[in-house]
Design brief:
By secondary structure, this protein is mainly alpha-helical. About 85% of the residues lie in helices and about 0% in strands. Helix 2 crosses helix 3. The chain is elongated. About 0% of the residues are buried.
């Protein structure tokens, strides 16, 4: 009888231990801040994997909006984006065309352009 009880207890503990080892790694990562940090460090340390994550985030409207909001809230990142746009005539054309479609922004653009024309006219040749 005690051998049977010991065997049942051994099987129960073995099953419990094995089920813990076979747990869902995603659940583990999401519930454990230390594991999250390790995973994020591994991903950000790998350019290919980082690119895949960014592609995933950009593939969904909700996460794309969140990502862009975070990027634009980061002064350095926003400055880098504006610098790249400023060096590309096609992007500048696109931005100006989009801005000109809004009545208030079109007025703002016209004011800026008039100011640039006035400033150019005041400079010595």
């Amino acid at each position: 009888m005690t051998r049977k009880l010991a065997l049942v207890i051994l099987i129960a503990f073995s099953a419990a231990a094995l089920s813990g080892c076979a747990g869902d790694p995603v659940k583990t990562m999401m519930s454990n801040p230390e594991t999250q940090t390790k995973m994020m460090d591994a991903i950000t340390g790998n350019a290919e994997m980082s690119g895949k994550i960014v592609d995933q985030l950009l593939g969904n409207e909700e996460t794309r909006t969140m990502l862009l909001d975070k990027v634009m809230a980061n002064g350095s990142a926003a400055q880098t984006i504006m610098g790249r746009i400023a060096k590309d005539q096609t992007m500048i054309d696109g931005i100006l065309n989009m801005a000109a479609q809004d009545d208030a922004m079109r007025e703002h653009l016209m004011t800026l352009f008039k100011g640039m024309q006035m400033a150019k006219g005041t400079k010595a040749p």
